[in-house]
Write a structure and sequence with these properties.
heterotrimer, A alpha/beta, B alpha+beta, C alpha/beta, A: alpha/beta, four-stranded parallel β-sheet, 8% strand, globular, B: alpha+beta, Cytochrome-c3 Hydrogenase, chain B, three-stranded antiparallel β-sheet, 8 strands, 12% strand, binds iron/sulfur cluster
């Protein structure tokens, strides 16, 4: 009996006991939920500046973010899972963005898309008076996607990265650079 | 149909007339970025509209004063990222004017070709986003598909998809190749066909026409008082285009019309932009046919850019209207003052007056027809 | 076109601040100067005293000009701030610039927003950046800067803003 139990447990953990590739799998509910979440990340429409156009391009015909289940851009923070901060955040906008972040329901993630969202980008110089030097000053950031602007492919990679962070496994093999 | 305006006699006189303030934005899908609108509403009707801006202010003018002329080169393309080429054009031209540099003709021709390609790309984004505002999703996918074709061409010569930094003081950073020329030729042909399809698919659509015709009328006088330019002014019947009126670059060598429609409603502005795509294609075709050989960089460009002291001004026709730079130089390597006059700022300024008395959804159609880029408003 | 410039010139030549007996101030005429559009980008530059900017704007309005922009330039050495009004013409190739200077320690001049309502935002922006007061302006709260901003970043002596939340 105890043996059986141990086997069950290790199955649930996805440990040595589970049969690889089998159709029926046992997992913790939490893992199942994570798997579901990772495959349908709904982003919040938060286009702030230039990077927003690349975010739109990622959702449009050629790059087709829908392949990764992340094309459902929601204008309401209550319905969104991930906030893609695409563009420059200045101190006048910092308050509203913070409010939006607080309004999102748990679990929630943040992708800082573009140099501006990561660090203030090209607008940082000694004595600058307007720009927030990175949205991680306002709330925690999960994935940073650098570029000015990053290409739409980079956003897709960022989404895959986030999926990996949520589920622990990567859905797509990493592209090897020569 | 919506019920009549509450001033109708159908509403009993005893009913209190209450107004309320509706806040739209700064994060709202209809405002295309971080614009905030304070609307005083009487039921569904806008009594008073006040745009609140500054949520994307990025200090471009201050940055102009604390770096050298060359170091400022990446900035103009980030003011209005949808018409980056035009903004670069204005910036390099104002410095060239101050220094008295002659640009070789091949460089100017390529500047015109890339600028016009950029104008088409910008209008395509507007086309998609505007129809999205009106509730039509599909055109966006078509428009972005065509836009990607332009981006492929421009990326091959400039190295970037959006924020081009391709022009230099005195010319261009590199020449275009045969592939670009061939690709552009093919694109012109392709786009002509697509434009016909857009007209069939969208322009003649009855629902669209009902939503745009007679809505949000802006008079030419209102444009003049607010300094609105570009398709907004041309949609009010004034054929004002910097390319024709104060010709710069090699535009006088091309034949093209300035589309203008007298109605002043959202439909007129829609038609102006669609017609402008066709005109841009015409210009590109002529420019490619006439493209002269030669260098793409002027010979005598000083290593250190130090314009003589003075005050210089240069205006170009960007996709959204008149963009101008006023450069005050004190003879050093750093500009003394760099004033950026952006079209979206003036075009948005008249929204308050133009939206008065409109239904809420018509006001948003009007807003979309102004084609705003918020960082262009805020700089 | 040239005719129009001549008419403009004579219209501006009569813009004179009358002499004032109480302060012994002499009459100040507007200085009208044609410029080379190829070199400078404008056709006519008019320099006036701050007291007559409204009249100057009215002349521009009469000639059918549209407001292009308003901006400030800081000249700390001279102890002055310059306000530059740009007007373009929707029908002709014509660009008009009106300049005026105000003292730097108390920069103030009348608003032209009754003539060109579009000047409202341009003046607010100039107030944001330079702290120049436009007398008679209905609302000078910051436009591009945060609502509570009390700094004027484009003044040459501006250094930094301290932000407690940073
Ligand atoms: S990172 Fe670059 S492209 Fe993105 S918003 Fe900032 S300036 Fe624009």
């Amino acid at each position: 009996m105890a043996e059986q139990q141990a086997k069950w447990l290790s199955c649930a953990e996805g440990g040595a006991g589970s049969e690889p590739g089998s159709l029926v799998r046992f997992a913790r509910l939490e893992q199942l939920l994570d798997w579901g979440r990772a495959n349908s990340l709904w982003p919040l429409t938060l286009g702030l500046a230039c990077c927003a156009i690349e975010m739109m391009a990622a959702g449009a015909a050629r790059f087709d973010l829908a392949r990764f289940g992340a094309e459902v851009f929601r204008p309401s923070p209550r319905q969104a899972d991930v906030m893609i901060v695409a563009g420059t955040v200045n101190w006048k906008m910092a308050g509203p963005i913070k409010t939006l972040y607080d309004q999102m329901l748990e679990p929630k993630w943040v992708i800082a898309f573009g140099n501006c969202a990561i660090s203030g980008g090209p607008f940082v110089f000694p004595g600058q008076y307007a720009v927030v030097e990175g949205v991680d000053k306002l709330f925690p950031v999960d994935v940073h996607v650098p570029g000015c602007p990053p290409r739409p492919e980079a956003l897709i990679e960022g989404i895959l990265e986030l999926e990996q962070k949520i589920t622990g496994t990567r859905r797509w093999p990493r592209v090897k650079t020569a | 149909m919506s019920p009549g305006h509450p001033t109708d006699s159908s509403v009993s006189a005893a009913a209190p007339r209450e107004t309320f303030v509706l806040n739209v934005g700064p994060q709202h899908p209809a405002t295309h970025g971080v614009l905030r609108l304070k609307l005083t509403m009487d039921g569904e009707y806008v009594l008073h509209a006040e745009p609140v801006i500054g949520y994307a202010h990025r200090m471009h003018e201050k940055m102009g004063e604390n770096r050298t002329y060359v170091q400022f080169l990446p900035n103009p393309s980030r003011i209005d990222y949808l018409s980056a080429m035009h903004y670069m054009h204005a910036y390099v031209c104002v410095v060239e004017r101050a220094l008295g540099i002659e640009v070789p003709p091949r460089a100017e021709y390529i500047r015109v070709i890339t600028s016009e390609l950029n104008r088409i790309a910008s209008h395509l984004v507007w086309f998609g986003a505007f129809l999205l505002d009106l509730g039509a999703f599909t055109p966006l996918l078509y428009a972005f598909d065509d836009r990607e074709k332009i981006l492929d061409l421009l990326e091959a010569v400039t190295g970037s998809r959006l924020t081009y930094c391709y022009y230099r003081f005195g010319g261009l950073c590199n020449d275009v190749d045969e592939q670009f020329i061939e690709g552009t030729r093919a694109f012109v042909k392709h786009m002509r066909g697509r434009l016909g399809m857009y007209h069939k698919l969208v322009t003649e659509n009855l629902i669209l026409r009902k939503r745009l015709e007679g809505i949000g009328v802006i008079s030419a006088e209102l444009c003049r008082k607010y300094g609105a330019t570009g398709p907004v002014l041309r949609g009010s019947g004034v054929p004002c285009d910097v390319r024709k009126l104060e010709p710069y670059s090699v535009y006088p060598e091309f034949e093209f019309d300035v589309p203008h429609f007298a109605e002043g409603d959202c439909m007129a502005r829609y038609k102006v932009r669609m017609e402008e795509i066709a005109q841009s294609l015409r210009i590109i075709e002529q420019a490619i046919a006439k493209l002269p050989p030669g260098p793409v960089m002027a010979e005598k460009v000083p290593r250190v850019i130090k314009p003589p002291p003075g005050d210089y001004y240069f205006a170009v026709e960007a996709a959204r209207g008149r963009f101008a730079i006023r450069l005050v130089s004190d003879g050093t390597e750093v500009p003394y003052r760099l004033k950026l006059r952006t079209p979206s700022f003036s075009n948005l300024a008249l929204f308050g007056e133009a939206a008065r008395g409109l239904l809420m959804q018509d006001a948003l159609a009007l807003l979309g027809s102004l084609d705003l880029v918020i960082p262009d408003v805020d700089r | 076109m040239n005719e129009l410039i001549e008419q403009l010139k004579s219209a501006y030549a009569v813009l004179v601040v009358p002499a004032r007996a109480d302060t012994q101030a002499a009459a100040v005429p507007a200085v009208v100067q044609p410029t080379d559009p190829e070199r400078r980008g404008c056709h006519l530059e008019v320099t006036v005293t701050p007291a007559v900017v409204v009249d100057a704007a009215q002349v521009a309005n009469r000639f059918g000009f549209a407001i292009d922009t308003i901006t400030g330039i800081d000249w700390p050495e001279a102890g002055q701030m310059e306000v530059v009004y740009d007007f373009f013409h929707p029908q002709h190739r014509l660009h008009l610039v009106v300049r005026t200077r105000v003292p730097r320690d108390a920069p103030a001049l009348p608003t032209i927003q009754d003539v060109f309502p579009g000047a409202n935002w341009h003046e607010r922006e100039t107030h944001d950046f330079f702290g120049i007061k436009f007398i008679g302006h209905p609302d000078l709260t910051p436009l591009l800067l945060p609502e509570d901003a009390d700094y004027h970043p484009l003044r040459k002596d501006f250094t930094n803003v301290s932000r407690s939340s940073n």
